[in-house]
Structures are given as C-alpha cells and as structure tokens.
Amino acid sequence: MPVFDDYAQGTPNWVELMTPDQRGAADFYGALFGWQMVENPLDDGHVYIVGNLQGDAVAGITFQLPELEGHPAFWNVFLAADDVDAVAARVGPAGGVVEAEPFDFFDYGRTARIQDPTGARVSLWQPRSVRTVRANEPGTPIWNELLTPDVGRATQFYSDVLGLSSDTHPVPWASVPTYTTFAAAGRQIAGVAPPLEEAPPHWNVYFNVVDVEESVAQAEALGAKLIVPAYDLEATGRMATLTDPHGALFCLIESAAG
After folding, report:
1. Cβ atoms of 32 and 218 closer than 8 Å
2. Which of 35, 127, 177, 211 gives 131 a disulfide partner, CB atoms 3.0 to 4.6 angstroms apart?
3. Where are the domains of the chain?
4. What region holds the VOC domain (predicted)?
5. pTM check: above 0.90
6. Rounded to whole angstroms, how far apart are CA atoms 193 and 179?
7. What CATH number does the domain located at 141-255 have?
8. What is the reported pLDDT for 245?
9. Crossing angle for the helix pair 22-33 and 212-221, to the nearest 10 degrees
C-alpha cells in the first residue's frame, strides 16, 4: 500500500487534469481507474474534483481557464517545492520563465506555473491539504517523464532550480541507446527523453494498471483514443498511450515489477 506523507523537493507530488468537462472527465477516469470522486466547492463558484482511491487522494480534475477555451484537455504535472516563492525566484536566472507567479490555490496549497528553457511547462506545488497520497499501485500515478529535445539543458535547469540530480543509463532499446533519470534525495523520481518529432516538449504522467490490454479496451469503450498501441519495454513493463474523450494525453503501464 504505497502511501506518501511527504515528498522530497522536485518529486512529482500532484497531477491535475484541466478539462472543459469536469464531470464528464470524472465519469471517465472514475470508471477507468476506480476512483471515487469528491467535489469540493470553491469560493469562486466552481468546484475542484479530487479522485480518491481507498479514501486517499490521487489526482485533481479542474475546470478550464477562460483563456484556454477551445484548447484540448491536458494533464499537468506538479513538482514538490519546499518554498514555492524561493524556487520560482530561481527560474528566470536558470533560463526558464515563470508564467504564473506564486499564488495560494485556496487552502489546498501554494503553486506557480513555469516553463523550462526547452519549452516544457510544469507547475510547482507546496501542499497544505492536497497532494498525491496514494501512488505506484494500480489506478494511481507510477511515473512521470519529461520529453524534451535538449536533455542536457533541461537537466541543468531542474538541478539549478529544484536541486534534482540526473544520471544516464544504457538501455537495450535499439532506437534509444540511453535513458536519463532525475533523482531527489537519492531516489529516482522521473525520466527525461527526446519527444517524438511532432510532439512539443512536455511532461507525461503514467498511470499503473493491472492489465494494459484490458485497460485500453475499457478506455476506448469509454470514448478514449489509442495513440500508441500496447508494447513491451524490457525490464520496465507493458505500456500504451491514449487521449481521453476531451483530448488529454495519458499513459498506461503494466509494471514489470508487478
């Protein structure tokens, strides 16, 4: 039962779906992952939906901002920050951009939205009452990955801003001879790799499932679109990539570790 009380700085500690149809998305992911959805009224009249598994928070589903009208839904990855304001202050000198200055998201936590020098967007999260409590088991996030055309520049940025270390590993994949990982407090917490040619730099979220084929079939029946069919990655597991009914990209992985 992988339950987390806290996260070392730089570790992904929350994922959030921004979508034009919150309740439709809640129905989709609730059916796919077995989440129980809790609607939390906000002071501005909206609601913030938290997907729970066995009573523990897993992910958020939020409304689409007016300036993003017409934009496909997307999953946003949040990285733990011990002090959001201090971390955000290091973004510009390290070559990145602070797109949304630090602010309090109601009483849930303090956040900022940044873009790294290679163009990938990610958020910082200093939690108060909300974080991913349950992870690394079926129906929860198990891995995050930065896809960037300049791995060296990206790893330097996240080292300067969040103190993450990185290491490059040889892998037995013909098209990708090496794979880079981020580590926080000595623990591997995310991967870094070049994106597909047509994909912009971005962060991916992987959700663990018991059986990839069954989950893909269920997701398609619920309105998802299969982008990358299920395939095996040696020593890692079996995975697939889909978009949900409103266009948000997400990955599934049936971990080789079980």
Report:
1. yes
2. 127
3. 12-127, 141-255
4. 11-127, 140-255
5. yes
6. 6
7. 3.10.180.10
8. 97
9. 150
CB 167 within 8 A of CB 41: no
Specify the pLDDT at position 229.
Answer: 95
Q: Cα–Cα distance between 136 and 149 in angstroms, integer? A: 27
For domain 12-127, say whether CATH 3.10.180.10 is its number. Answer: yes
Contacts (Cβ under 8 Å, ≥6 apart) of 92: 98
For residue 133, the tally of other CB atoms under 10 A from its CB is 18
DSSP symbols for 142-182 = EEEEEE-S-HHHHHHHHHHHH--EEEEEE-S-SS-SEEEEE
User: Vertex 127, ends 118 and 188: CA angle to 5°?
Assistant: 55
Res 67: pLDDT: 78
- Predicted local confidence at residue 173, as pLDDT: 60
Return d(Cα 98, Cα 89) in angstroms, integer.
9
**Pairing relationship of beta strands 12-19 and 74-80 according to DSSP bridges:** antiparallel
